[in-house]
Write a structure and sequence with these properties.
- The complex is a heterodimer of chains A (about 350) and B (about 300).
- Chain A contains 10 helices and 12 strands.
- Chain A is rod-shaped and about 215 Å long.
- In chain A, strands 6, 9, 10 and 11 form a 4-stranded antiparallel sheet that branches.
- In chain A, helix 8 (about 220-290) packs across helix 9.
- Chain A has about 350 residues and is an alpha+beta fold.
- Chain B is an alpha+beta fold and about 300 residues long.
- Chain B has helices at about 5-20, 100-105, 110-130, 130-135, 165-180, 200-270, 270-285, 305; strands at about 25, 30-35, 40-45, 50, 60-65, 70, 75-80, 85-95, 185-195, 295.
- In chain B, strands 6, 7, 8 and 9 form a 4-stranded antiparallel sheet that branches.
- In chain B, helix 3 (about 110-130) packs across helix 5 (about 165-180).
- The longest helix of chain B has about 70 residues, at about 200-270.
- Chain B contains 8 helices and 10 strands.
- Classes of the chains: A alpha+beta (about 350), B alpha+beta (about 300).
- Chains A and B meet through strand 9, helix 5, helix 6, helix 8 and helix 9 of A and strand 6, helix 4, strand 9, helix 6 and helix 7 of B.
Chain lengths: ~350, ~300
């Protein structure tokens, strides 16, 4: 004990025997720490023991790097640390887009096409240029192959898709590509891509290739539209000319008919009039023939009886009076023709 | 702490280190060459799983077992017909002999640069040996009947002798020959993209535009021509109708006039003198009116009885 030894300069250094007996908090004892450590280890182990596979996936379990089993959707167990799980979506349809990206999926997807012209510009079989956007839809059918056979599978798949599409488009004219050939291009490239995918052992199956926008390159677009416009212009000019024709000709025919009918009317009038006049004359003539002299005289006097009272100015001249200076009073005539009452001429 | 607990812990730690140094895990995508002091030893290990080796003395070198992609950077190159194009190829290859690979190329970086040289070179050779059309088309299929309306629209696809796929096949064979002793195998090589160089593309666009404009011009002139023809037809038909109508009308009138004349002649012809007598009387009656100035001689027949009753 302290009292036995003489005091020295190093008295402040605690004795090793005393340290051992320094008071510790009650919970810091080996047994408690040991239990806590074991519990921690147990928790970690348990966490690594089970795993969940979603309905559209399968799980590939590797033990020490080696594939030991494939698990269906649900809850499963594995050896902790030693075994590792990779998840592969097999039910979900995957897609790769070319020439554009869907930036916001929704009812109306938004495309950003400008940045991807490298993918969409391609040469056609007549050495023209077309811009083709398309989507490849596919599914994983062999998860083992999908994971372990090809490195950078998505990149490789994209390269293959571009190569196949360009091969197919490169065999067609630009007009085919833009108009009637779309369906055929899609089905042909599907077939070729599937063959290539099988050859490359990728474990995927192509569901569908869908062409999106297929257009001529931007600088050329206006001239393509121009062709359509010109076609419409042509049809319009022709229709207008035909309409003009239809406006004029039927009316002309009608007017022609009218003229002919008028002529027929004239003809009837003329002939009937002539016949009427002739019949009248013949009747008078027949009557006249029976008493010509008397009839003549009678007709003459009756006419004079009607005519003379109508006359405005009458001059009776005796033949024996010699000649008269033929004087034509134009002034007087003018008066006759005007409003002034007629002045009687020379009278005897 | 008890000293021999520490010793036990120390021994356990050492054992652990030793264990980790003498095992290695080969993944499903890997193959391993064991090197001892830098020199390869034994056959390549391709079996996935846990394997053992001598600790520290032996090192496990890992290599890819998977199919690998080589993607050439796009390059400008001329074709045989002097067209400058951008060519972008991709190839598929694999390490088939990791030992040779290790000896010749060391690692993947070395392999990529070798592949760059070989594949780029072979591609350039191929592109320069063929016309552009051979690189674009792969078959001689005839173009589908696209409905065309003008002769200008008819496009004929040039025939090819070789084609895209065959040329790629040639490049593949040539490249395979050059990689035989490198421990790698090139499985496939394909044209990913071909495009015109910018200046050439401008010319191509100009050509396409001119082509389309020619077709448009054709349509327009067709329209104008047809419209003019219809217009001419209209004028011709109009004149025909009008003139025929005139002729028929005149014929009818003429016939009627003739008939009337005949009737008159027949009627009046019996006594022409009587007719002129009757007609003159009618004319007198119609001609005179209040404004007429009339001079009558006394020896006229009318005034006969004015002089004398007989």
């Amino acid at each position: 004990m302290n009292g036995d030894r003489p005091q020295g300069p190093l008295d402040w250094v605690p004795d090793i025997r005393d340290i051992r007996r320094v008071q510790r908090p009650r919970w810091v004892n080996p047994r408690f720490l040991g239990i806590a450590a074991l519990a921690l280890v147990a928790i970690v182990l348990l966490a690594n023991l089970s795993f969940q596979i979603r309905p559209e996936e399968v799980g590939i379990v590797l033990r020490f790097g080696r594939h030991v089993r494939t698990t269906e959707p649900g809850l499963h167990f594995k050896l902790p640390f030693v075994e590792q799980v990779l998840r592969v979506p097999v039910q979900r349809q995957l897609k790769e887009e070319f020439g554009f990206r869907t930036t916001e999926p929704g009812i109306r997807s938004q495309y950003a096409a400008n940045a991807f012209t490298n993918e969409s510009v391609m040469l056609t079989g007549d050495l023209n240029v077309a811009v083709v956007e398309w989507v490849v839809q596919y599914r994983v059918t062999d998860p083992y192959m999908y994971l372990f056979k090809v490195r950078g599978l998505t990149e490789t798949f994209r390269s293959m898709s571009e190569a196949v599409m360009r091969e197919v488009v490169g065999d067609r004219t630009v007009t085919e590509v833009l108009t009637v050939g779309r369906q055929e291009i899609a089905t042909t490239s599907e077939r070729l891509l599937q063959d290539l995918v099988n050859q490359y052992e990728m474990g995927i199956v192509i569901d569908q290739i869908v062409l999106q926008d297929v257009t001529p390159p931007d600088p050329v677009k206006p001239s393509w539209d121009e062709v359509n416009q010109a076609q419409q212009q042509r049809d319009r000019l022709i229709n207008e000319a035909r309409a003009e024709y239809n406006k004029v000709i039927p009316r002309a025919k009608g007017e022609a008919g009218q003229a002919i009918l008028q002529a027929e009317g004239y003809a009837l009038e003329r002939v009937n009039g002539a016949q009427g006049d002739a019949t009248r004359f013949k009747a008078v003539y027949d009557a006249y023939r029976r008493a010509p002299d008397v009839t003549r005289r009678r007709l003459y006097l009756e006419t004079m009886q009607r005519v003379l009272p109508q006359l405005g100015a009458k001059v009776f001249m005796d033949q024996g009076t010699g000649t008269v200076i033929p004087l034509l009073p134009l002034e007087g005539l003018r008066g006759l023709l005007g409003d002034t009452p007629p002045k009687p001429g020379g009278q005897r | 702490m008890k000293p021999d607990l520490m010793v036990k812990a120390g021994i356990a730690l050492l054992a652990l280190i030793l264990l980790s140094a003498s095992t290695y895990v080969v993944g499903e995508t890997q193959q391993v060459i064991i090197t001892q002091l830098g020199e390869p030893k034994g056959n390549p290990v391709g079996d996935p799983g846990l394997h053992f080796k001598l600790p520290f003395i032996q090192t496990a070198n890992f290599f890819e077992k998977r199919f690998l992609e080589w993607d050439g950077s796009p390059n400008q190159m001329p074709t045989k017909d002097k067209r400058f194009i951008w060519v972008d190829m991709y190839a598929r290859w694999r390490i088939t002999d990791p030992l040779k690979f290790f000896q010749r190329l060391r690692d993947e970086r070395g392999a990529q640069s070798r592949l760059d040289d070989i594949l780029d070179g072979e591609t350039r050779n191929a592109v320069a040996s063929y016309d552009l059309i051979e690189l674009v088309r792969s078959s001689n299929r005839p173009p589908d009947s696209v409905p065309i309306e003008t002769e200008e629209e008819r496009i004929v696809l040039e025939e090819i002798a070789k084609g895209r796929r065959a040329i790629a096949g040639d490049v593949l064979l040539a490249a395979q020959g050059r990689t035989v002793d490198l421990g790698i195998e090139i499985l496939d090589i394909r044209l990913k993209r071909i495009n015109y160089v910018d200046e050439v593309q401008q010319d191509v666009f100009a050509r396409m535009i001119a082509e389309r404009q020619r077709i448009a011009e054709r349509f327009r002139s067709e329209g104008q021509g047809e419209a003019a023809r219809i217009q001419g037809e209209r004028q011709r038909d109009l004149q025909r109708i009008q003139s025929e109508a005139y002729r028929t009308a005149q014929e009818l009138r003429g016939k009627a006039d003739a008939e009337a004349t005949a009737i008159y002649a027949d009627a009046y012809g019996r006594d022409a003198e009587f007719y002129s007598f009757i007609k003159s009387l009618e004319t007198y009656e119609r001609t005179v009116d209040a404004k007429t100035f009339f001079v009558l001689g006394t020896d006229s027949d009318l005034l006969r009885y004015m002089r004398a009753p007989k």
